[in-house]
Write a structure and sequence with these properties.
Radius of gyration: 26 Å
Structural class: alpha+beta
Order of helices and strands: EEEEEEEHHEHHEEH
Helix content: 25-40%
Number of helices: 5
Distance between the termini: 51 Å
Strand content: 15-25%
Strand order of the largest sheet: 2-3-8-5-6
Mean pLDDT: 75
Number of strands: 10
Length: about 220
């Protein structure tokens, strides 16, 4: 009834039927991945007023996490798998770290690379009333919003000194190309400074936070 696609892997259709409304895929957690596609197979449809909630359970974790849902009107969806902290399996086998990878960092200490690579995750699909799924998705959005707000509030503001340095850096990068020689001294036309100020003000209006991103200052 359902299929799943992981990057660089064959289409998954080996669905386990747990009950009339519950299904699951058990898939290798390695190689790690960032996204997963879930879809209704052609010729299949959900009962009226029903949707399919999609859950994921990471290796060594007893809890399922809601990813989203599909339905008769939206028969496929791409889900991003976020797991901050990086991939222990990637670290063991590849010697580096990655972000937003579907590999559980709760693998018990001392687990070897071979054992870690044999870990599996479970993709669960539950056919539920549309109203119930909608309520769960709204709750999920609220939780994500709270977490995002907390991260924003916790972010340390730039000091006055740092902000001034980034404004000067922005001006210098712009004006350096207009410098010319005058009596053995490098000078910048006043008009170039005025052009920078107009451009700087316009960017502040369009993107007030750009100075907080040092690489763009």
């Amino acid at each position: 009834m359902f299929g799943a696609i992981l990057p660089s892997r064959p289409v998954q259709t080996n669905l386990q039927t747990l009950s009339a409304t519950q299904f699951a895929f058990t898939l290798p957690a390695f190689p790690p991945f960032h996204h997963i596609v879930v879809f209704l197979l052609p010729g299949n449809a959900l009962p009226p007023d029903a949707a399919a909630a999609v859950y994921i359970r990471l290796p060594h974790n007893p809890d399922f996490k809601l990813l989203g849902a599909i339905g008769n009107e939206k028969q496929s969806a791409i889900f991003k798998i976020n797991h901050p902290g990086g991939s222990q399996i990637s670290e063991v086998l590849a010697g580096n770290e990655g972000d937003d990878v579907m590999v559980d960092e709760t693998v018990p200490p001392g687990t070897t690379g071979l054992v870690a690579a044999r870990a599996h995750f479970t993709l669960g699909i539950s056919v539920e009333p549309t109203a119930s799924v909608t309520a769960q998705l709204e709750a999920l959005k609220s939780t994500d919003m709270v977490e995002t707000t907390s991260m924003v509030l916790a972010k340390k503001p730039l000091s006055t000194k740092m902000l001034a340095q980034r404004i000067i850096k922005n001006a210098f990068n712009f004006l350096a190309s207009f410098a010319g020689d005058h009596g053995g001294n490098e000078v910048v036309p006043l008009k170039s400074f005025q052009d920078w100020w107009v451009k700087f003000e316009k960017r502040i209006d369009l993107d007030p936070g750009f100075l907080e991103r040092d690489e763009e200052a």
